[in-house]
Design goal:
Distance between the termini: 25 Å
Largest sheet: 7 strands, antiparallel
Order of helices and strands: EEEEEHHEEEHEEEEHHEEEHH
Structural class: alpha+beta
CATH class of the largest domain: Alpha Beta
Shape: globular
CATH superfamily of the largest domain: ATP-grasp fold, B domain
């Protein structure tokens, strides 16, 4: 399977290349978002793409957007991506792009944690808290938290690192009413998705959402949702509190990078072919589990 590291669409103006997504302007009301096969880890874009990853992200996001739209509307426009580019460019967008409403993104990433893992576990080991929030003593790695916790972070530019912020800082950025709305929507989306995923043998340990608003101030779910890029997925059958469970996401690459001795600064090391293939396999297995009948 060939991989798309970077889209090269010339029939539309390029607005921005993110860590994974390339954004183009369709018209005054719409954007084309192309989900490439790029992979970022520790906020650095890796030199080697994951074949098929963009299609997995798009298929899963479309699934979750549909499943969760009763909780919050999303940015999808219903316009086919192939219809807004030239015929020669349709292959670049087929199965891996959205045409979305043009909204104003909120300046935070909305993270929700249901289990003690990753940076939250490291924080807890040092301070007994997670992102400044009090937790019971004696918790183990991968323990389920008493309730899902909203732990927002900054949105860093490419090459910079996202930083956890307090809820009070989120209020200063968004305003009290909007911050509460984002917190409540984040937790509600997570709880519904986590309950569904559990029925498919997947634990969603944590995930990240992004939100935007229209000119009337209506809140929308944007970007992508509940994919292996933005979530920590664990297979239920291998879950055991007290250890770091295997995952269906880019944690496999992150673990390899941690073990490699890389300093998490540019440039990132080349990723071995077997690590790329195992990561691709994990993405596809997550997709199959979650959307299979």
């Amino acid at each position: 399977m060939s991989a798309l590291h970077e889209s090269t669409i010339t029939s539309l103006p390029l607005l921005h290349r993110g860590k994974v997504r390339d954004l183009y302007e369709v018209d005054a009301q719409h954007l084309l978002i192309v989900q490439t096969d790029r992979l970022s880890a520790f906020d650095v874009i890796l030199p080697d793409p994951i074949p098929g990853k963009g299609e997995v992200l798009t298929t899963l996001s479309n699934f979750w957007f549909d499943k969760l739209q009763h909780i919050l509307p999303n940015h999808l426009s219903g316009i086919a991506p192939e219809s807004v580019v030239s015929p020669s460019e349709q292959e670049q967008v087929r199965g891996r792009a959205f045409v979305t409403k043009k909204l104003k993104p909120l300046p935070i990433e909305a993270i929700v944690r249901g289990y003690l893992a990753g940076s939250g576990w490291k924080d807890y080991q040092k301070t007994g808290t997670m992102c400044g929030l009090s937790l019971p003593a004696g918790l183990r790695e991968a323990d389920k938290l008493p309730q899902p916790l909203f732990t927002p972070s900054t949105k860093a530019a490419i090459g910079d690192h996202d930083e956890n912020i307090s809820y009070e800082q989120a209020v200063r950025l968004l305003g009290e009413k909007r911050a509460a709305q984002v917190r409540d929507a984040t937790v509600a989306l997570y709880v519904e998705a986590a309950n569904y995923a559990a029925s498919k043998g997947i634990i969603i340990a944590d995930t990240k959402f992004e939100f935007g608003v229209d000119d009337e101030g209506t809140l929308y779910l944007i970007d992508e949702a509940l994919t292996p890029d933005s979530s920590r997925f664990w297979p239920s059958e291998d879950y055991q509190a007290g250890s770091n469970p295997p995952s269906f996401d880019k944690q496999f690459v992150r673990d390899w990078l941690e073990a490699s001795g890389w300093n998490k600064q540019e440039p990132a090391p080349r990723i071995p072919q077997d690590v790329l293939q195992k990561t691709a396999d994990k993405y596809h297995e997550a997709l199959h589990r979650l959307i299979s009948a």
